[in-house]
Amino acid sequence: MQRAILFDLDGTLLHLSRGYGELLAETFRTVEGECRDEWLETYDEAFFEAFTACEPEPCRSAFATVSDDPDALATKLLELEAEANRVPEGTHEDLAALSDRYQLGVLTNGMPEWQREKLRANDLDSLFDAVITSYEAGAHKPEPAPFEAAESALTADAFGMVGDSDADVDGATRQGWAALRYDGQRFREVPTEFGWE
User: Fold this and answer.
1) Could you say which of 51, 66, 84 is where a domain stops?
2) Are residues 159 and 99 in the same domain?
């Protein structure tokens, strides 16, 4: 039986070493020379509204509500976010070992170019057979569409999901997948937790 394990990205495979608000503030300071509280609030509201609706380029469009240089701001924020992410100890080794027996994928709520850049910046991109983003699926986890997209991308008889949120676990469970809430355990333990060994 061919089995596939899908991993959430943010909060599971990658962990921010700095608060997101801190990264956003540094982005404004670097590009605009200052950071105002109203910019942060306006950006957050505009971003989450656009992101939830899967509108194109939500970061750029949110920055455009407060700046005449949204491209530079979006580029800088992605750079800082990629740099600030850390991979849990042993992840590369665990994923390499799992790939000998399972198909591996990333199933993440996010924009394709951003999520793939974060994977690349942390030397994770070559470890997966597929990367599925909610934007490409047209809906965010826990909706069925991302999970269905993963089933189309990977030719497996059984699927499992590892993630740190209800959206990951509940969405996978409703899809009939095995599901594991990530709480810091080594990734090589996942098959045992799924009851696959």
Assistant:
1) 84
2) yes
* Across 88-96, average pLDDT: 97
The helix or strand, by DSSP H or E, that contains position 181, with its residue range, turns out to be: strand 178-181
- DSSP conformation letters of 128-155: -SEEEEHHHHTS-TTSHHHHHHHHHHS-
Structure tokens at 143: 């909706």
Q: How many CB atoms lie within 10 A of CB 48?
A: 12
Degrees, nearest 5: CA angle 162-155-10: 25
CA distances from 185 to 60, 73, 108, 123 (A): 35, 35, 19, 20
Domain harbouring 179, CATH code: 3.40.50.1000
What's the token pair of residue 72? Answer: 């530079």
Enter the tokens of residue 1: 């039986």
Q: What is the pTM of this model?
A: 0.95
Identify the domain containing residue 147 by its residue range: 3-15+87-194
* SS3 call for 184: coil
Same domain, yes or no: 34 and 91: no
106-111 average pLDDT score: 98
